[in-house]
Amino acid sequence: MHVEASSALYTDALMSYRGLAGEYAHQVVDHAVEYVNGRIHTNGLETFWSLLKRGISGTYVSVEPFHLHRYLDEQAFRFNKRKNLDDAGRFNRTVTQIVG
């Protein structure tokens, strides 16, 4: 996975993220101080990972590391379309993309 230079990155205050501001529009929310600073938060990402972990342990049960990127792609599609389509619409769109 690649992130385009100058992309907006919102992270927590983990030391590993220091230095990103040179290449990206990096904004930090320090959870020791606050969880949200205007539009800067990590809630969406935390929700995504929660749904991914629930899907892997509940739906797929076992995931081969070789195919992990495919599971991530599917979950990213579902997450990004969660407000645009009802369940039937998401299913039909996914099947159409796979078959078509």
**What structural class do you assign from the helix and strand content?**
alpha+beta
Tell me the strand percentage band: 5-15%
Q: Percent helix among the residues?
A: 40-55%
Radius of gyration: 17 Å
Please tally the β strands and state the result: 4
- Stretches with pLDDT under 50, minimum 5 residues: none
Number of self-contained structural domains = 2
Main sheet: which strands, in order across?
1-2
The string of secondary-structure elements, in order, is: EEEEHHH
Major β-sheet, in short? 2 strands, parallel
Which descriptor suits the 3D outline? globular
Task: Walk me through the structure.
With 100 residues, this protein is an alpha+beta fold. The chain folds into two domains: 8-41, no CATH class; 43-99, no CATH class. Helices cover 44% and strands 12% of the residues. The protein has helices at residues 43-60, 68-80, 87-99; strands at residues 8-11, 25-28, 36-37, 40-41. The chain has a two-stranded parallel sheet with strand order 1-2. Strands 3-4 form a two-stranded antiparallel ribbon. A hairpin with a 2-residue loop joins strand 3 and strand 4. Helix 1 crosses helix 2. The longest helix has 18 residues, at 43-60. It starts with 7 loop residues before the first strand and ends with a helix.
